[in-house]
Protein: DUF222 domain-containing protein
Amino acid sequence: MAAKTLTPQDRTARREAARALHASLDDSAALINGVYATALRLVMDAFEGNVHREVDGFSAHRDWLVSTFDFTFSAAGNIASIAKLASKFDRLAEAALNGYARIDQVAYAVNQLHKTPAAALFARTPFRTPVASPFDAAVSCATPEALVVEFAAHAPYRELRRHLTELHAGLAEEVELLDGLGEKSLQYLEVQQIEEGGMWALSGLLSSDTGRLLDKYLKTACPPPRDDETDQYGVLPPQANRNAEALHQLIAGYGSSSQAATRHGHTATLDLVVDIETLQGKDTGRLPILEGEPISVAQARLLACEALVIPSVFDYARGEAVELGRALRLPNTALRRKLELEQQGGCAWHGCDRPVSWCEAHHLAHWADGGDTNAENLILLCRFHHGRLHTEGWTVEKTDPGQAVITHHDHPIGIAGRECGCSDWRTDADLDEAFQHDEANVFPTGLFASEWSEAMKPGLQVKLEQVEQGREYFEDPIWQGRRKRANATEIPVIELGAMAPPPPIYGERNSAEELIPF
Structure:
């Protein structure tokens, strides 16, 4: 269909609508900032009178605001930071109180200046000669703090951050080196299994250089979502989920490297012990053992495909090792390169965007069942879809180099030596299309509702409900009023308080700049 040609009248109407929208948003921003300024002044009075501690029994300023007055966590943190440090950075506090600079910009600035004694002292030390504001030559800045006020008022967050980073870099004195030693002393990392055989919790505190290295790796391995990746609600894909997958690739790639740390001559690999008959699915009454713990046969067959798992397979009757080691089950460097060249688009699952470097080699005929490790019997799949194809009902047929038809049969196939013979099959593309508008389609992996296990169902259901709340929020008529309308003649003014704050479904890492679900 040819694009509609806009007439001069259409363009004029759009410009007028845009001006009206800008005016409405300017008014809304002024109202919001005015309310924040009023709240800040009241909180400063409350802190001065020690109301939070003596009346309400709170020692933490932010917790007092969140628990007693139902401030959002972010707003409470900003207000508390400025109020606590108002006497030390009075110029910045005044900029927030009179609406000259946004409260979040000022809060970030005071927290950064308060990080080291050297920065706090320098911020209040007058320049020998006042300097002009880089944003308005008529404004004279007598101190570094006054200059920071100008950045907080006129510069975007990234420029403000860069200015403060440069300020800290110029004050690299011994006291800050000692601060660095303190950071390294305080850093920790805990990895704890939540429940036996289940997921793991990762928590910790990293020093600035360690955190910067990890952040750089995650962004390199898995770049943040782009603006053109937003969904129909204007929400970006969840970066937090991508970070988890990038961390796995970091560990998997390094753990199998010859340069990795070793213990007793071995890198960070997992040991799987199983006998060949059990691995082939025969009813032996025995279970595979992974790192000393029993696991299911299905899980063992999947893990045996991964490079970080070394299977020790035995002939149980004779008690001897079966020569099905790494060389036979995993493609060598040349074969892996051939597979990647033939499948440059990444995972073989229809529509999956995981890069080929993150994919695992899947045997169409499993190596434990006698399947060969050659190009004809291998296809590359990401971890999620590789695991999916190890569940019941899936078949894969390789049609060309790097291409395969992935099919699911609704009835079991090949049970007790007999084929079902039914025509109840659907391809991966068919399944994704049917699932596209399902209310349970909220996870970035595309996890089908039929794949929700009983153990994981409560946690998955909570996430589903949170995302549904988010969808309802973004479908609100007030929010929808922000969308572009080609023939708009008037733009509604959004009154302060007309719209509730969004539900708490956003990740912490980029929430200041991007809306990211769970």
